[in-house]
Amino acid sequence: MESTRQKKVARLVQKEMAEVFQRESRNLFNGAFITVTQARISPDLGHAKIYLSMFKVEKPQELLSLIKAQKHEIRRRLGEKVRHQLRIVPDLDFFIDDSLDYYENIDRLLSND
Question: The pTM is what?
Fold first, then answer.
């Protein structure tokens, strides 16, 4: 169960990461439309799991590999934004959020009745 502090830091990281992806997607990720759907923070606040949703992308795994290759640059930009709120900028891990695909599949299966 997440503590109140973890939830607050997760919201802050999610908001700032969304801004980083919005501003830098043209430069770093070939203009792909990437949204941050969720951020989860470890209890020691030193590690963050970032879940991304990618739209209009033919090969999301390749884009995820590109994002992971740019991880240090993304973390640096996050650090510039949260340096006054957090003592330690969490280490970042990125994952594809496929929950929307899952919901669409369930909806499609239920509507076939």
Answer: 0.84
